[in-house]
Specification:
114 residues; Alpha-Beta Plaits; 4-stranded antiparallel beta sheet; 3 helices; elongated
């Protein structure tokens, strides 16, 4: 399964976020996102043990309307500029968290050598 990362995909106003219903098979999700204009090259939100999937990528307004009609789709939401800012902030927080974890590990290793 090809799952993007935040580094691979930068959401832009006009992109859409699609979330499937709980219990949607991954194969159903993967087949569907290959039909969107970007061919499924957006950001896939897929985690082992989580019974639903998300996707953020390029859809036309008509495709967003069509996606909402799919029996396995819970919702489709257009990304706005403020959401783009919120997502950027979430990425920054995630990176800062990772940096703190790494620093803590390095500091612990340093202290253990004293």
């Amino acid at each position: 399964m090809s799952v993007g990362t935040w580094d691979d995909y930068q959401p832009r106003p006009g992109d859409y976020y699609l979330c499937t219903k709980t219990g949607t098979e991954i194969s159903t999700f993967e087949r569907y996102i290959k039909t969107v204009p970007d061919g499924g090259k957006g950001y896939q939100i897929v985690f082992d043990g989580v019974p639903f999937q998300g996707y953020m990528g390029r859809l036309t307004e008509d495709q967003a309307k069509e996606a909402r009609k799919q029996p396995f789709v819970l919702f489709v939401h257009q990304v706005t500029a403020s959401e783009e800012d919120r997502l950027a902030l979430e990425r920054d927080v995630q990176e800062a968290s990772e940096a703190r974890r790494l620093l803590s590990t390095q500091w612990s290793e340093h202290l253990s050598r004293l």
